[in-house]
Amino acid sequence: MKLSELLHEQELGDWRRTHYSKEILPTLNDKQITVMGWVSSTRSHGNIQFVIIRDRLGEIQVTAKRGECSDKVLDQLSHIKDHTTLGVRGKVRAQTKSPNGIEVIPNEVRIFSLAKQAAPFNIQANKSTVGIDTRLDLRAIDLRRNFLRSAFGIRHTTLSSIREFLDAKGFIEVSTPKMIATATEGGAALFPIFYYNKEAYLAQSPQLYKEQLTMAFENVYEIGPIFRAEPSRTKRHLSEATSIDVEQAFSDYSDLMNLLESMILHIINSINDRHRDDLQSMHGTLPKIKTPFPRYRYDEIIDKLQARGEHIRWGDDINPQIMKGLSNEVFNSDTFYYIVDWPTAIKPFYVKPTSRSDRFCESFDLMFGSLEISSGSTRINRKEFLLGNMKKQGLNTELFDYHLRVFDYGVPPHAGFGVGLERLMMVLLNIENIRDATFYPRDIDRLTP
Ligand code: ATP
Ligand code: MG
């Protein structure tokens, strides 16, 4: 038979999978089954050909031996490359030497889609040897890497455990516009878009909308994209990130810090419960945490930094480079902690000053080592204060009329935070570059795939 006939691609037709790899147990010995997936590796020993097929749940070994299966099937399996997608019908046989104690003796193979060439990188290793850009150019294949498949399974659990946690506390999930007329925070980092005949922007945060929604629903959250035209190339910024935004009425920033740390505890417990195998194969352990997380005042941190000889003045933002030394020394590197009571001047206009002094505001950043994971605060709920702050920060208040007008109708005291999902994944799974914590990263150099 010619190679082209042998490796002829076929339709799915009436074939359906009877079992996932993981469901094929020694109890199925001698049973006929159909498995489907993609080839993760092949190995040849003369008259015997091993093919490992991977599916959503794991791997199964197919063993084609001359005499035990047809020559056609043996030839087919001998010529396919890694990543080929196929179905195999055959008989289950207990096999102590195979990875999960079982193998499939094939009697028919249906090739759905042939891998035409070898992938430009090997997906077996946990850490890849090629640069991240080579991997991102073929991201769908890169995502077949075990480490990343586990990481994104854990991302899914992170999201579902957040929803469980907040739902149980009486929050409702909301969705707010991503095409907006004015900047939320007056920052410059926005993407302009054409909106019919007008200029509009992609939302950098659901901030003002989630605050408004506390008027009707009290406790709301949104898990959605935020868009920021970050000018610099860093391993912690994306142009399109996922934000977990929470807003709660009749509470202040200290309630929200309590809520956030219990939410993180719940996430970590859920991952430990549901992903034992993944964590093992990733050689990873989640951060061990104790609540409450330590809370350091901005003032204290500045003093500590100055004492170490860092060039930082009161009123400066605290960047990761500067924090690195301190977090290693003082916080024993990788732990969660809060920096609270920031200078009012470097936080957005909607953040409420402390009752002690206008110079400080009721705000927090959740940190892990030197990386910022979340920012939160008590918000201003009175119109005249909000207006005053906007003017102080040089914002054009007319542009915020759509927001300010609701403050004439009773806005509850409220507080909230936004957590960057990808940043959280970085610290949970020790991912070095934020681009690996999202499926298809967007950054200043990358708009495809
Ligand atoms: P940074 O100072 O690290 O740039 P930020 O203070 O500008 O962050 P916030 O506006 O406080 O960010 O947003 C809340 C959270 O959203 C951040 O703590 C971070 O986890 C996440 N986040 C913000 N911008 C990005 C981005 N460009 N890429 C990934 N995550 C982001
Ligand atoms: Mg912040």
Keywords:
449 residues, alpha+beta, BirA Bifunctional Protein, domain 2, 2 domains, five-stranded mixed barrel, 25% strand, binds adenosine-5'-triphosphate
Can you offer a commentary on this structure?
The chain is α+β, with helices and mostly antiparallel strands and 449 residues long. It has 2 domains: 3-113, Nucleic acid-binding proteins (OB fold (Dihydrolipoamide Acetyltransferase, E2P)); 140-437, 2-Layer Sandwich (BirA Bifunctional Protein, domain 2), CATH 3.30.930.10. It is 29% helix and 25% strand. It contains 13 helices and 16 strands. It has helices spanning 3-6, 71-79, 132-137, 139-142, 146-168, 207-217, 253-274, 276-281, 298-307, 320-329, 383-392, 401-404, 421-429, and strands spanning 32-45, 48-54, 59-65, 85-94, 102-113, 172-173, 179-180, 192-195, 198-202, 219-227, 240-249, 295-297, 336-340, 363-368, 371-378, 414-420. Strand 2 and strand 3 form a beta hairpin. The longest helix is centred in the middle third of the chain and has 23 residues, at 146-168. The two termini are 39 Å apart. It binds adenosine-5'-triphosphate and magnesium ion. Magnesium ion (MG) binds at residues 365, 372, 375.
